[in-house]
Each structure stands twice: as structure tokens, then as C-alpha cells.
Amino acid sequence: MAFLEMKNIAVMYQKGQRILENFNLQVERGTFLSLLGPSGCGKTTTLRTIAGFLAIQEGELLINGKLYNRVPTHRRNLGVVFQNYALFPHLSVFDNVAFGLKMRKVEPSERKKRVMKAIEIVGLKGFEERLPSRLSGGQQQRVGIARAVVIEPDVLLMDEPLSNLDANLRLEMRAEIRRIQKEIGITTIYVTHDQSEAIAMSDRVALLNSGRIEQLGMPQEIFYSPGTSFVAKFMGFQEIANGTVREITGGKCFVNTGETSLEVRSSSEISRGCKAVVFGRQKNLNLLKERSDNSLKGLVKAKIFQGDSVLYIVELGDQIQINSEVSVEQALWNEGDTVFIAIDRNLSIAFKREERKWTNFKSI
Ligand SMILES: Nc1ncnc2c1ncn2[C@@H]1O[C@H](COP(=O)(O)OP(=O)(O)O)[C@@H](O)[C@H]1O
Ligand SMILES: [Mg+2]
After folding, report:
1. If residue 264 lies in a helix (H) or strand (E), which one and from where to where?
2. d(C-alpha 110, C-alpha 106), whole Å
3. Whose CA is nearest to atom 10 of ligand 1?
4. For a tag site, which of 5, 99, 103, 135 has the least CB within 10 Å?
5. Which uninterrupted H or E stretch holds 325?
6. Distance CA 357, CA 351 (A)
7. What pLDDT, on the 0 to 100 scale, is given for residue 358?
8. What separation in angstroms does the CA of 276 have from each of 63, 265, 296?
9. CATH classification number, 4-229, choose in 3.40.50.300, 3.30.1330.40, 3.40.470.10, 3.10.290.10
10. Which residues are CB-neighbours of 123 under 8 A, at least 6 positions away?
11. Is 339 in contact with 299 (CB distance < 8 Å)?
12. CA 63 to ligand 1 centroid distance, Å
């Protein structure tokens, strides 16, 4: 049985507007799961539901087999880390970290032992007496983490904890958070809108779309095998061709584009004869001088010198434009030239094309 389970959960902020509905999530003990998705998709709402800040209208929240629906926030043994640190400015690092243990009436000598251990785990030994205002952003977030884990919570909840840090520090703190999580072996739910962060840090990634989990899987699955075009787009794929599915065999399919026939991976949503859109990643689109097997013809719209590489913008018809980056030595084409794009049959995927909604031009 999963350690944390959300079963058919419905929650709302205002009557009649359910943000989560029939929401299901299972998190195994000791795993690091990311809730990933665009702004407004319901990541924070999911965390707030687990933390007890939002009433559950329908469904069940279970932690370690126990029903939590009606357990008040302060009785849920959860550690929470926010984006804005939320430290007490007038308290030292030690007292910030000790706060939760004081509230729980842990006696002073035990308290000191646990606080010092938490401070050491997050790498802040020697900073016990500092005030938060004399710490860098990264150090403040370490205090936030120490404060959350010192109470030995059942689950650690983190809501975009790195978004206030600059790019280099974010990379460093990714690795730090993962090290700390592994060291204490704590079940963690981590909210982020940054794909690379989720991919780099997690055992499991749940990609949310409008209050639903669109796909849940290991980072490799989400990255290489998106199950829907929404996941594909969010994970950095782009449209490269439209066509009709001619044939499907063993995970592969052939898509007639009018100009040619492409062999690519098939997704579960397509069937023979359906309209399909093929997705690929910029990194896997190589330019060719001549047509070869599994390639598309394009027109060079722009050639942009970038110092150590050249970026080509190539039009493939159907209003599809792709970017392809090549080394300076391989930049053989100029604007207006015809070029061919190699389509990697193992790294490109066909999804069902959503019907385009045509406006009614006849009105009045
Ligand atoms: N306090 C609130 N009152 C009303 N609606 C809210 C509130 N907080 C969030 N929402 C709405 O709930 C949806 C999900 O928001 P949220 O969970 O914060 O998304 P995310 O964290 O993925 O960006 C959004 O449509 C948002 O407008
Ligand atoms: Mg949020």
C-alpha cells in the first residue's frame, strides 16, 4: 500500500468551482515525487489539501493507512517548506529550527541535540547564532529545510522552494535537497513548474494539467515517452509534421504527410486512419543536404550566427517552423535554400490531432 494516498479527492476555494476533482495520487514511502505543471494547474492546491489548509469535499486522504480528512493541520505530522522561506526574522538560526520542537514540548536537552543534528544535515554548522537577515538566500532556505525536517515529519512538502534563488544557486540547492532527502529517507512531495528541476531531482514525476494528473512516471518516462501531446509540449517537444496514420505496428507507426511517409513511435491515442501530429525535439532534428529515408523537406527562413554554433529556422509547410542548431563548420545553407530534416524514428512520436475549431465565417 502506498504511504500517502489521495483517492477521488475534490476540493474548491469557491462554491461550484472545483479545482481538483476525482484526483488520485499514490506516493510510496521514502520516495521523492514532484508535482510538475504550468502555473495555475493545481500544484499548490494539492499540497494545501495534504497539509490540511483546504477542506476535502469528496474522497479520502490517507497517510500510512490512516484517514486524514478531518485531522487538523497542527495534528498532521508534516514538514512544509515555502518559496519565501517564512523564517522568524528576530530569531537566530538555532531558535528558528527549534521552534517546532518547543511547540511540541520536547525537553531542552533532546531539543538541542535534534536542532544541532538538523543544522548539520543542511550544512549550516557554525551559523547557529546568526539572524536570518545575515544569511544568503540559499542559506535561508537551508534553515527552512532544517526547521521542516527537525520534527521528523511523516511527509515533507515543498512548494517551489528554489524559485527565489539565482540560477547557479538553484542548481546547487537541487543537489543539496536531494542529498538531505536521501540522508533522512523522508517521503517528499515537491512542487515545481520547472521541468529540468523535476527531472533532475525526482524518483517520480506527476505532470498536472487543469487539476488532473496527465501522466505519472519515472523522469525518463516523462521525458522520453510522453503519453499525450500536452506532456510532450511541456517536456520540450515541438510539432514537426501533420498527417494521417497509415499503419501501426509494434509501437511504431507510419504517418503520411502528403509530401512523404514518416516512421515514428506511436502513442496509445492514435489509430489507423486518424489525423496525427508528429512531435520531435529540436536537439534530435538534424539537417541533411539530400533527402534520405525518414526525412522532411524544408526551406531555410533564417540563419543566425551564435558564436560557437549556427541556428537555422526552417519552414516545413503547414505553418510549422522548427529550429535546428549546427556547428559553424556544418552551416552549409543560406536563407532561401532547400534543406532536409532527418526525423529520428525512435525519438519522435505521433499523437492524435485535436480537431481544429473553425469559426463560422458566414455569420451575418
Ligand atoms: N485562494 C484562492 N482562491 C480562489 N482560487 C484560487 C485560490 N488559490 C488558487 N486558486 C485557483 O486554483 C487554481 C489552481 O491554483 P494553484 O493550485 O495555486 O496552481 P499552481 O500552484 O499549479 O500554480 C487556479 O485556477 C487558481 O486561480
Ligand atoms: Mg503554486
Report:
1. strand 261-266
2. 7
3. 13
4. 103
5. strand 321-327
6. 18
7. 53
8. 42, 12, 16
9. 3.40.50.300
10. 142, 176
11. yes
12. 24
Q: What is the reported pTM? A: 0.91
Q: pLDDT of the chain along its 364 residues, tens only?
A: 899 999 999 999 999 899 999 999 999 999 999 999 999 999 999 999 999 999 999 999 999 999 999 999 989 999 999 888 789 999 999 999 999 999 999 999 999 999 999 999 999 999 999 999 999 999 999 999 999 999 999 999 999 999 988 888 899 999 999 999 999 999 999 999 999 999 999 999 999 999 999 999 999 999 999 999 999 999 999 999 999 999 999 899 999 998 899 999 999 989 999 999 999 998 889 999 899 999 999 999 999 999 999 999 999 987 899 999 999 999 999 999 999 999 999 999 999 997 755 544 444 3
CATH class given for the domain over 237-352: mainly beta
Spatial distance between the Cα atoms of 269 and 349, rounded to a whole number of angstroms: 11
CA distance 128 to 96: 9
- Give residue 40 CA to ligand 2 midpoint distance, Å: 7
Structural domain boundaries in the chain: 4-229, 237-352
List ligand 1's pocket residues with C-beta within 6 A: 13-14, 19, 37, 39-45
CA of 139 to the centre of ligand 1 (A): 29
- Ligand 1 pocket test, candidate residues 36, 41, 45, most atoms within 8 A of CB: 45
State whether the Cα torsion 184-56-209-43 is positive or negative. Answer: negative
Residue 50: exposure state from Cβ atoms within 10 A (0-12, 13-18, ≥19): buried
The closest-lying atom of ligand 1 relative to the alpha carbon of residue 17 is 5
- 47 CA closest ligand 1 atom index: 17
Q: How far apart are the CA of 37 and the centre of ligand 1, in A?
A: 13
Instruction: Name residue 246's amino acid.
Output: R
